[in-house]
Amino acid sequence: MTALLPPRPAAPERPVGGRLIDQFEYGLDAPICLTWELTYACNLACAHCLSSSGRRDPRELSTAEAEAVIDELQRMQVFYVNVGGGEPTVRPDFWHLLDYAIGHDVGVKFSTNGIKLDKTRAAQLARTDYVDVQISLDGATAEVNDRVRGTGSYATAVRALENLAEAGMKDFKVSVVVTRENAGQLDEFKALTDSFGAQLRITRLRPSGRGADVWDELHPTMAQQKDLYQWLLANGDGVLTGDSFFHLSAFGEALPGLNLCGAGRVVCLIDPVGDVYACPFAIHENFLAGNVRDEGGFQRVWQSSELFADLRNPQTGGACTKCAHFDACRGGCMAAKFFTGLPLDGPDPECVQGYGETALAARDLELVTPRSHIDHSHSGPVRGQPTLLGIPSIPSKICDESPLAGLDLR
Amino acid sequence: MTTAVSSAEVAFDPAGPWRRARSVALRPEPFGALVYHFGNRKLSFLKSKTLVAVVEALADHPSATATLAACGVSEAQRPAYEKALADLARSQMIEPNPEGTP
Amino acid sequence: MPETTIDVDTAPAPAAAEETLVEESLVEEVSIDGMCGVY
């Protein structure tokens, strides 16, 4: 692996007893849950897409290969897989793989923009156990949402929510990425999700994928971060966060969750071509641990890859460890630091103590921040594309999907 | 996350027969085990190998108390283990064993 | 250090591993949503 991670002691000693997160830092025999992006194809072209999705990759796992991965997850007793993409439901075998996973003791939560969730599918999901659905939405109004996700995307999401609610689906979620533009809508998001009987989930914007292009204008301001933290303390019961705001714990009282970077330790990503990355926000060759098509499959990658061994060897040095708040924030998000060109053993770019801003200002002016060469973005204009970057919107048709090269995955 | 009381909670009585709940998966880890309830989506960590052995052996004994003894839990440790089992009962990871002998 | 436990005792004095564990909670509950790096 490249000399990327800060120097760490050679052979870590796992402590006996103690706090759970101390144990997790040393890794587990299998991930607790993981993210699995099923396809890079997507009908949308969201401005901040963490996986730079849009076009299918010709090397994507076949149905048989995907089933083999599920078989492995079952053997490893991975309880839960978070399926995403791109838009996972545009894979013709999505519904088959969903049933296959559930039938093999692997619970599924899938993240979708709602495009395929018509009344029939909603009814099917409502009567299927061990499956959770998460609808992506980044504005409590179409005006705010569609600027980032594209014209018509709010309507598509709301239609899916209506269908799920009407079908009697339980515990479905609305997942929001908090941005400068929607940070003031938290109460409205809560009201909206309540109105559908859904659960609100808010997560952190990372400068990953296309998110790197819009990070400067979209990431919340310091003032908004403070308000967000207060809001979570006051309203957080029943609002999920995917533990993505643990960097805010340095404001004071820790937020619920492990408050720990799970990359390579409790979670990881399997991408559409079978590549295994430490985290869905770190789709970059420096965080590539292996491929499920390699000898030994996913299990060998999880248990024996060099990258994951490095990540399970907790760092003992670095600027952050000397800060009084280190225990609360653990130095923040590895992906956020990496893609803003900051050292991994230093502060998070959004460090609430302000050390991140200092570090960003201290970067070499000539610095080119790391970019992933993995980019499946649509190459031409897309109907209803986001207007955030000032590109005029082509009117969209409600049920429009991106043209997928005639794909036969069987 | 919250530790809200569920309507199906059963108070833990160590003298009664118990067993690991049916929709629960248990996966050993270096420091103990991970327990996941497919029904209520709760995830618990057992921080002792002995506790793992106790949970696995519950169905084989007429009572939780007997199970603790059979697994070598000392008198001094008993309160901590009973508390742990009570926690697991609260999150429905263990349930009364209808086939348990009185 | 607040964690997602039902209740947690303070860190024990150094002792043999089993006895050490007796003074802490042996069970910790976490949310399946409560770990970072997941969609």
Number of domains of chain B: 1
Secondary-structure-based class of chain B equals alpha+beta
Percent in helix of chain A:
25-40%
**Helix count of chain B?**
3
Strand content of chain B: 15-25%
Radius of gyration of chain B: 13 Å
Q: Quaternary arrangement of the chains shown? A: heterotrimer
The total of beta strands of chain A comes to: 9
**Spans of at least 5 consecutive residues with low confidence of chain A:** 405-410
Write down how many β-strands of chain B occur, each being a DSSP E stretch of 2 or more residues.
Answer: 5
In the predicted model, the low-confidence regions of chain B spanning at least 5 consecutive residues are: 1-7
Dominant shape of chain B: globular
Greatest interface (CB-CB under 8 A), with counts per chain:
A-C, 45 and 20 residues
The pLDDT mean of chain A sits at 91
The major sheet of chain B is characterized as: 3 strands, antiparallel
Task: Name the helix and strand elements of chain A from N-terminus to C-terminus, one letter apiece.
Answer: HEHEHEHEHHEHEHHEEEHHHHH
- What is the alpha-carbon Rg of chain A in Å? 20 Å
How much is the average pLDDT of chain B? 88
Properties at a glance:
heterotrimer; A: 410 residues; alpha/beta; 9-stranded mixed sheet; 14 helices; 9 strands; 30% helix; B: 102 residues; alpha+beta; Outer Surface Protein A, domain 3; 3-stranded antiparallel sheet; two-stranded antiparallel sheet; disordered N terminus
What do you see in this structure?
The complex is a heterotrimer of chains A (410), B (102) and C (39). Chain A is an alpha/beta fold and 410 residues long. In chain A, 30% of the residues lie in helices and 10% in strands. Chain A has helices at residues 20-25, 63-75, 94-103, 119-126, 142-149, 153-166, 186-195, 211-218, 222-235, 297-304, 306-311, 326-329, 334-339, 355-361; strands spanning 33-37, 80-84, 107-112, 131-136, 173-178, 199-204, 269-270, 275-277, 288-291. In chain A, α4 packs across α6 (153-166). By secondary structure, chain B is an alpha+beta fold. Chain B has one domain (18-95): Alpha-Beta Complex (Outer Surface Protein A, domain 3), CATH 3.90.930. Helix content of chain B is 28%, strand content 23%. The N and C termini of chain B lie far apart (36 Å). The model of chain B is unreliable at 1-7 (pLDDT under 50). Chain C has 39 residues and is of the alpha+beta class. Chain C contains 1 helix and 1 strand, in the order αβ. The radius of gyration of chain C is 13 Å and the shape is elongated. Chains A and C meet through β1 and β2 of A and α1 and β1 of C.
